[in-house]
Fold this protein.
Amino acid sequence: MSEPVTEPRDKSGEETERGLSQRIGVHSGAASAVEDAPRFERGEREAIFRLEDVQVSYGPKPAVREVSFDIAENEITALIGPSGCGKSTLIRCLNRMNDLIPSARVEGRVLYHGQDLYGREVDAVEVRKRIGMVFQKPNPFPKSIYDNIAFGPRVLGMKGNMDEIVERALKQGALWDEVKDRLKTNAFGMSGGQQQRLCIARCLAVSPDVILMDEPCSALDPISTGKIEDLMMELKQEISIVIVTHNMQQAARVSDKTAYFTVELDDEEHRSGRVVEFDDTEKIFTNPSDSRTEAYVTGKVG
Amino acid sequence: MSTDSQAIGRPSTSRRAKDRVFRVGLLACVGISVLLLGVLLYDVVKDGVDRLNIDFITSFSSIDADQSGIQAALWGTIWVMGVCAIFIVPVGVATAIYLEEYADETKWFNRLIEVNIQNLAAVPSIVYGILGLAFLVRGPLSLGPVVLAGGLTLGLLVLPVVIIAGREAIRAVPPSIREGSMALGATQWQTIWKQVLPAAVPGIATGVILALSRAIGETAPLIVVGAATFIAFNPDGLASDFTAMPIQIFDWISRPSNDVNDYRPLAAAGILLLMILLIAMNSVAIWLRNRYEQKW
Amino acid sequence: MARSHFQEELAKLEVQALGGLDLVVGALDRAIETVQHQDVELAAMVISDDDRIDGRYLEVQQGILSLLALQAPVAGDLRIVAALLHVMKNIERMGDQCVNIAKLVPLAGHEPPADAQVLENIARMGAQARVQVIQCKQAFDRRDVALAQDLVRQDDEIDRLNREVFRLALEIGDDPDTREWAMHMMLIARCLERIGDNAVDIGEQTAFVVTGLFREFEDASHPELAPPSTA
């Protein structure tokens, strides 16, 4: 059985500055291992998220359950599966966006750098500073491009030259060359693909650790989709990305690891999702372990 | 034309006739209402347009019809509208924000508030006058029949309009904007103050102007509150006695007119001035809405 | 460039596959040398080195599978991937032929009766095969269809030399040792001729990648379909 991942410590056992800065709020205890969950052996890439038997319900019955796996740092992890399998619900747990839905209830543990995101001392707003999100339909604010990017840094009170911050974010988001001459124009004047890259740049402006993407390309044309996929490949060197997609080929193209979710009907016709398989993307698409995964990726089902 | 290739036929004559009858009927209804309005308008303009000049605006009311003017009432209206606006904007917008962003719909008191706002908008205006008299002019606040009391009374009257318009404007901001803002790490208040409200401002402003244009023509509440009918000075503060344009017009109409002093043209001119103000306000509201309306 | 990650992976795969041809040239050179000098130790080395070619085959095979599954190439990219699968198979066969040559050397004995003419033909076949292997690699690398088609003409030469060795072996005389040696030489010639055919196959794959049409340059059952060989 593999050992749980601990926070980064230097040789003397003291917490490194990085370890300290990764904490949100107060330390809430070590993670307990869950059997049979895909874990990283010591020496492999560090886990940025560890999900332990996570279950989300919007009422009496769960929408998604039995989710246990690690998400690695500086990788792209894809969540695939048919409609209604709870992948969007799950990804929204990772930055506590489910808090905005009053009836949502999260059970199990979601550990970020070893810390329970749903611990009592943890502030949801702090969580979202470090874990950003891009939505299915591009949602630029009705402001100028500049103000869109500057919004995050301003509300978070980030110090520094705002012009530089905006430029850095737009360059990181592969949008600078296209908009540098019209930063003050309204963001709504951009095409759909540009708007989505603006939303990504907006996230990048606050220097997050992780960006969660909920079907970011489903409203876009193939060329824009391609540009965003190339952008993701570049970004993963500095940031970890988790992407929900109903486009299997996209998951195959960009992701390093893939989790396949399935939908199950219980006795009372209630649908809930669960993870069937989580593995290297190459394995999932060339030789999956579970026959249900094989049925899904070959298109025979779902 | 062979029977095989049937050309698309034209509708039967009876169907076309019915269609035409319907269209004519609708036009007739529109025509009647426009005609009525036109007649009224023509009548007022005929009576009042000669009297509508600088003298009219700069003179105070007087027994002598030729010397009489609407200045005191005009400034009174402006002062009262000012108080009204300063009152309804923060209170109305705050209420709208609370109801749309913070209130949990399942709680009973929130549903109670919601139902009552709809009801309040339908209450006859004179009831507000009585309310103002009892609580503002006399009673707990004892302000007296002054500008502040008149403005607050009218404010209470039109507050529901602002709240309802404000709620619509806030509701029109899509949830995706709020989600995008929260996902960046903004608090709920930061999201409302920096994203939702700025986007809702055109709708709120339109609502405020429409509320004010309703208030400007209200006579009964102001009479009950104690606006004077004969005043020959402009208000000099919130605690000042005052009169308002609808009241002045009402006063002129109530006086008996004879050959020496004919007050009817004064009343007509006053009505015209009031209508010009109303049209101007509504035009600004429409312009604001068209120019700044956000198409999501 | 869009999909740059995919394009890089595809380019790497092609370099990896064509690199196998360099390994083949090395194996071929050493195989010919073992024939010339009856070097049994060198022969053993050729045989064990074939593991490298086999290993390269498996690597490229896995890479192709991965690329197909993950990137879903289409059009020209798909043809390249499909062609590389064929090419790798041809390379692996060439490697096996070199092994076969090396295996035949010890059987020829330490002091074999050597016919100079036969040996000379074998040497020329070896040189010719070497030329063809290098040329098919160039043709594929440059996507040069003309260069690929020229391989047919080159191959005619190897075929001619093969027939010559066969004729010489028939007429070599009655000495059983000599006849045995001659039969081994014939088999070696056959291996070299097979290497030449594999090079032509690679040329066909080059044409397929460029034109999208798969056509055998020269089919044993339809000699009349061969492109005209320049005299």
